[in-house]
Amino acid sequence: MTWTLNTLATWCGAEVKPQEKDISVNHITFDSRKVQEGSLFVALCGQRVDGHDFAQSAKEKGAVAVLVEHPVDVEIPQLVVENTAKAFGAMAAGYRKSLPISVVGITGSVGKTSTKEMVAAVLESTYRTSKTKENHNNDLGLPMTILSMEEDTQMAVLEMGMNHFGEMAYLTSIARPNIAVITNIGTAHIEFLGSREGILQAKMEIMQSMDDDAVAVFNGDEPLLWNLKDSEVHKKYYFGVENTACHVVAEDIQPMDGGIRFRVRGFGQEFEVFLPTEGMHTVYNALAAITVGLLRKVKPEKIQIALSNFKNVGMRQKISVEKGMTIIADCYNAGPESMEAALHVLGDHKTEGKRIAVLGDMLELGTRSQAEHYRIGRFAASQADLLYVYGTNSDRMITGAVTGGMEKSCCQHFTTHEAMAEKLRAVAKEGDVLLFKGSRGMRMEHVLQLFLEDHQG
Description:
It is a single chain. This protein has helices at 5-12, 55-60, 84-98, 112-124, 141-147, 167-175, 190-193, 196-203, 223-226, 280-295, 300-308, 336-348, 369-383, 395-403, 417-427, 444-453; strands spanning 3-4, 24-25, 27-29, 39-42, 65-68, 78-80, 102-107, 129-131, 155-159, 179-182, 215-219, 235-240, 248-256, 259-266, 269-275, 318-322, 325-330, 355-360, 386-390, 411-414, 433-437. The chain is of the alpha/beta class. It has 3 domains: 3-81, 3-Layer(aba) Sandwich (Udp-n-acetylmuramoylalanyl-d-glutamate--2,6- Diaminopimelate Ligase, Chain: A, domain 1), CATH 3.40.1390; 99-308, UDP-N-acetylmuramoyl-L-alanine:D-glutamate ligase (3-Layer(aba) Sandwich); 318-453, Mur ligase, C-terminal domain (Protein-Tyrosine Phosphatase, Chain A, Alpha-Beta Complex), CATH 3.90.190.20. It has a 9-stranded mixed sheet with strand order 8-9-7-10-11-12-13-14-15, with helices on both faces. It has a 6-stranded mixed sheet with strand order 16-17-21-18-19-20, with helices on both faces. Strands 3-4-5-6 form a 4-stranded parallel sheet. Helix 1 packs across helix 3, helix 4 crosses helix 11 (300-308) and helix 12 (336-348) packs parallel to helix 13 (369-383). The longest helix has 16 residues, at 280-295. 51% of the residues are buried.
């Protein structure tokens, strides 16, 4: 993974001095703290920090060149471009095009990261595979992921996120997926995209820069995606549970202690899969991974092993036992679809104790916010014994829960994390099951942390 400065300049449209063309670059970063010997430092212009101010620091840490929007007063080779962020993306596009790899691009309203991890786990069983680290799925994270790939990579699994029109088109122009996966069409970011049809339109931008022989892998239980099956652009393969006309179908789904088991039928194959995760939504994530794996000729027995050893990442549905209580920590983010799925997990969890839903606001729902919080509250009434909510919109969950049959004394709205944790300390007992979930900005993991800290001896 070494480039000449001339190669990088060619990719991003910059000029380089003749005597600097053969300088070797082995690392590219826009974070001055991560500069190392041989780095190209990308000076981004942020709202609060201007990367140009760190050019001297980057040189002192070993940078061999800088990418800038105007010359800086530092004795170091400089590639000057109009927009360093776009140039960063252009370099990633150039590197991706130079590699003989197959790229799987993954998007959807919910489940992107878990699906990405499952797809990567399946492909890693057969190919040298790179994947998006954490949730680096935006206009900076995606290029960073690509430019970090080793030259011998065979498969790249890239998560691609967006919340406005045009953003996915930009990402796909860089990644150029050979397989485009759309997990579902929900209501996340509907505030900016107007409707589920608008969300579909924005997600479908992932197809814009794909080669003619590239294919799509879609959720066939989603009518908005199934209705695209006869469109002429790109071959489409579908996975599903309810729609048995899909290419890959899950059957005989059986929730079990510590996971879920089901049979897969598709592409002339039939085999059993065990997932060490809970909830029907994880079956869909696995089906996407299985479909990609079978399309790339991964043997069923390798798919079985990869998925049976799957472990989720970050703050996504971590189930543990603390002080005799089962904790379902799913604090990374939340929308109506993922909130409903998490409540399903809570309701299906076997226990002789109480089921306690500890929920925060779902953000970026626009004019649908009140209705969606109310609907989730009604559903929570059928899955939880107690409902504790936090945030400016979540009081509508209580209204929905009471309408759905939950006693008002079993619901409470909180304005601080501390008050919420204090209430949990008073009511949660050994044998109870607690679900913690909310949008990223609600920081529900902090409530969990406060609650667990005060339960430690």
